[in-house]
Design brief:
alpha/beta, 2 domains, seven-stranded mixed β-sheet, 12 helices, 12% strand
Length: 302
Amino acid sequence: MKPTYSIVIPCLNEEPNIERTIQGIRSQLNQPKEVVVVDNGSTDNTIDILRRLDCTYYIKEGYNISQLRNYGVNKLLPTDYIVFIDADICLANDWSDVFFDFLKNNQGVELTGNRVKAPGDTWIDKNWFCLLELENSPNYINSGHLIVSSSIFQELGGFNEELITSEDYDFCQRYLKLGRNISHAPKNMIALHYGYPRTIKDFIHRESWHGKSDIKTFNNFITSKVAILSIGTSITVTLAFTMLTLHKWVPSFVFILIYVITLLIATKVKFRSQFRLITSSIMSIYLLSRTLSIFTISRNRS
């Protein structure tokens, strides 16, 4: 007898994507037991589309992403697996076939998923997001395409509702502390992500938002390599420009050289065999965006 699975989708203003997401689910040969959408207070036509498609949805305005996902799970009937996808994700037509084959050939899977794939139609996709999907982190699966057994979800107590981002990383770390290993799904179990930023402005906005949790507390900061690196490189750039204004050419050159070398190393570490010089340029924007999280946090507190 095949195991059952249900899908939980958090949502906010996804008018361009939500119908594609729902239709992608409905194209599966092995249908989910339930699909629950939890909307965060959309002001576009998202809800009208959900009504037209006869979807089960709940509106929970003001909830953070962890609360939305946990709420959706609490509304599900008993099921073997819970699949978390975002509202801008489209599952490939054979996704469920690959999923069930994977479960059949790998007994006892508790936590799985893989990196979502970028459509690859923008230069940011080609030189950043398409390269990310080639590497799987051994200790983390993004909640845009994360699958967990119901028993493990309950054992872990769901997502940490104190976190406004990085809740998926925290969830995976708590799972690993149980002494288990993450079972990465095969790369042909495809989930396409249509919501990746298409412009530099959107890229900066996305990454500054993702950086919030890394600097929310001092402990978060000192345990985040990205946060430390972003602040460190920002200080280096600031010192370089300060030396330039003081006409101290040698110190300025040294700081710029340190910055460039750091970018190249960071890019090589993050993308390994997929290293590209243009990707190092995007890396500089990525680290700057994470630094901007500080000002976002400050505005939220004031």
